[in-house]
Write a structure and sequence with these properties.
It comes from Thiohalophilus thiocyanatoxydans. This is Tetratricopeptide repeat protein. It contains 13 helices and no strands. With 233 residues, it is mostly helical. The radius of gyration is 18 Å and the shape is globular.
């Protein structure tokens, strides 16, 4: 596992952050009441976002079966509405529910997080899950770590760029150390070259292979149709 824990505050757990003075059970009851009181004609995405808050709190309470059901019920709404940030946050919950399809959820979430310019903190968090799930001597963690660093450099806003790239460089160094006992910059340069991690045109297709292994053809959306929504594909 990575030595660098990703702060869930980076992910934007709005449900817990909104009422830090309340217990998780009290927060859950509050958010469940909010869902119940939504008008019947409330926009589907508003209802889904309210239920995502519930799912996050259920997960925090280790009620993983219930959190899974909430997340699975709302993911299609976010996908249909092209609400990619919300979709990835939902996939994050689904992965952590430790259900039979949780690895598929992780792969799909990572694909969306890398494909679309959502919050870079979210993408880093999702890629870190791959690192945690990958054996120390496997290349998949290296591919996830270099992609994380690439995304941070490419997408982080100016006021977050230094802190995020510092974090991802540390994650990359940690992965290199456990993969090949890399300790110096010279060794790092050699390691990056050996594993072909210097060019995104080389490592991004390899990330796609890692994602395919995770998902195992259990896609919950049409990737080709989603690709068509990109400005360049």
């Amino acid at each position: 596992m990575s030595d660098f824990e990703i702060d869930e505050a980076m992910f934007g757990n709005k449900a817990q952050a909104a009422h830090p003075e309340m217990s998780l059970e009290e927060q859950l009851q509050l958010h469940q009441q909010h869902v119940a009181e939504l008008p019947e004609d409330a926009p589907a995405i508003d209802r889904a976002r309210a239920r995502l808050d519930v799912a996050e709190l259920l997960l925090a309470l280790e009620r993983k079966d219930e959190a899974w059901q909430e997340g699975r019920d709302i993911i299609d709404t976010f996908l249909n509405e092209e609400a990619w940030q919300d979709a990835v946050e939902t996939y994050n919950v689904l992965f952590q529910c430790e259900q039979p399809a949780s690895l598929s959820a992780l792969g799909q979430g990572v694909w969306l997080a890398v494909t679309f310019p959502i919050m870079p903190q979210t993408t880093i968090t999702m890629l870190n899950h791959i690192i945690d799930e990958t054996p120390a001597d496997a290349d998949g963690a290296a591919v996830a770590a270099i992609t994380s660093h690439y995304i941070a450099d490419l997408r982080a806003p100016e006021d977050k760029h230094e802190s995020l790239t510092f974090l991802t460089s540390k994650i990359l160094a940690d992965v290199a150390r456990r993969h090949s006992n890399v300790e110096s910059q010279e060794q790092m340069d050699m390691w990056l070259k050996k594993l072909e991690l210097e060019d995104p045109k080389a490592f991004l297709p390899r990330l796609s292979m890692v994602i395919d292994v995770l998902v195992q053809d259990d896609w919950w959306f049409d990737r080709e149709a989603v690709r068509e929504k990109l400005p360049v594909h």
